[in-house]
Every structure is written in structure tokens, then in C-alpha cells.
Amino acid sequence: MIVAERKPIDEIRAFIENCKKILLVGCNECVTVCYAGGKKEVEILASALKMAFMKEGKELEITEVTLERQCDHEYLEEIRSIIGEHEAVISLACGVGVQFMAEKYPQVPIFPGVNTLFMGVTEEKGVWTERCQGCGQCILGQTAGICPISRCAKRLLNGPCGGSTKGKCEINPELDCAWQLIIDRLKELDKLDDYDKLVPIKDWSTERAGGPRKVVREDLK
Amino acid sequence: MRLSYPDSIRIIRLPCTGKVDVIHIMEAFEKGADGVYVAGCLDGECHYLTGNLRAKKRVEYAKKLLDEIGIGGERLEMYNIAASDGPRFAVVAKEMHEKIKTMGPSPIREAIARKKAA
Question: What pTM, to 2 d.p., does this model score?
């Protein structure tokens, strides 16, 4: 899931300072699961914004909508008939949804209501942690299912650095050393021999460093 | 017992404080409430096990939101009162009433009044 968190209300309010009617659009996918931009968060943010405006003696009309997804044409089409009635849109989707809406509706200003953070898991209720950086060449098969790209601060590929102490990373004593986790799991799997195998230099061109990426499936087009 | 408590207080009955959501609190303020308090069972005595603990966390979150928009998180409180403790209920009602009275009307109530007068 893509993990995000709501922007401060003041930042959101500044986007729409001079508006009288806005569209507030939530997304039913990842941001719902991480309580940042689902239907509930749309309601709460709408109420907070309305009160912030009322306090200043201004009025703000908000249309609340939550789409199934904001990263697909078919769902974004659902707001085509109403978007034009609004001076601006605040999207509570991840950065993907915000951009896709802006591409689709170039006439209306679209603002983000959340900060998009990472691809991660719900470790426990209210706690999300990063698991994947979309490097484009998954090496989880060699690393006991634990990703050193997303979970090691240095993205090391062949064992831990000298900053690994008692299983924790030197950048944060609460952060597990990814390589300690990998070694522990390899032991459990009785595959510690795999630790000796050298992982070759990674081709980073499939990662963000290679520029914006694209996937084309001719069979599906 | 025939205890009295301030008539400024409107009671909204719920099966459990675990039912209280942030939006319910926000809407109360949006409609002009000067203050809101959530009265739950004592810690560890929730009939649904954790309803009052969940409510407490939601109240804390709503307090931050109210601070962010300048309404003031102190206008919102969570109290734990045993269901059978009438005297404590009356004391808390008076305490909250006095606190809010000292703080004065909520800026939203004032904004609503200004709008009506215009």
C-alpha cells in the first residue's frame, strides 16, 4: 500500500484561501487503509476547513466525494460532470491520484491534501513502515524475503555495515538492521550458505535514477 | 438522588463511547457547541472491553485538530465516570460548564450568530 499522511490544515487552507466552493475528493484505496484520505478523512477535513473559514468570517462550500481510485480513468470520470462547478479541488489521494486528476482536468486547480510517504505495510493499527522502493529489479529471492534496498539506510547488498549494533541500525536505535534480519531469517530457513553468495553490482537504471518509468503490455492494450 | 447539573449541557446518548468518532465531535463544534465532553466508563470497565480507550485516543486526535484550526483543543475533554456514579456525573458537568463559561463562546458560535444577524 502507498502510505500517506494528511498535510497540516494551514497548508491546505492556504491553497484555497480565496475560494468559495471546492471539491474535496477522497480515495478508497491505500489512503483509506492508512487513514489519510478515505471517506472518513474527507468528512473530517471538510468540517475542519469549513470551521477554519467560518472563524475568519468567510464561507466555504465543500462538495465531498470519495472515488474508488484516483489512478484510473474510469473512476476519475465520475467527477467530470461536477468538477467544473468548483473553483478548486483538494485531492486526498497519493501523489499519483493528484497528478492524474490534474492531467485529466487541466482547467481546474488541483491541490494535494496529503503528503505521500512510501510503499509499506500496516505493522500494527496506527503504525506503518516502509517495505519497497520500487527499484525495478526485485532481489527478495536472494535476501530471505527481506529487502535491503528499502530497509537498509545504505541500501547495502552484501551484508551489514559497521554501524550495525546488536541488531539495530546506527541511524536510529529503534530501527532493525535489515541485514541482521536477513541473516536471522536465512538461519531459520537453514540457508545461511546463501549469505556467502555475492550479489553483483545492481543495475540502478530500472530504479528512479533511470528517470520516470513506464510499463507497456501490448497484449493488454 | 435528584442531583442537578447545568442546563447548558445537552446529552447525546450512545451505546458506548467507542461509538464516538472524530467527525461527531467536529460536527458538534461546527453546529456551534462551545465545548464537548465525552463521558465514558472507568478505565478497564468498558462493557465492550476497549470502547472508552478508543474514545480517549479519538478525543486526543480531535483536540489536536481543534487546536490546528484555532478553536482550541481545551474545549474538548474526555472523562471517565462510572455508570452508577451520579454525583460524579454532576460534578463533571459543573466543572466543564464552568471551564467553558470562563473560556467564552466558541468562535464558530460567534460566526454563526454574526451570519444570522447579517
Answer: 0.94
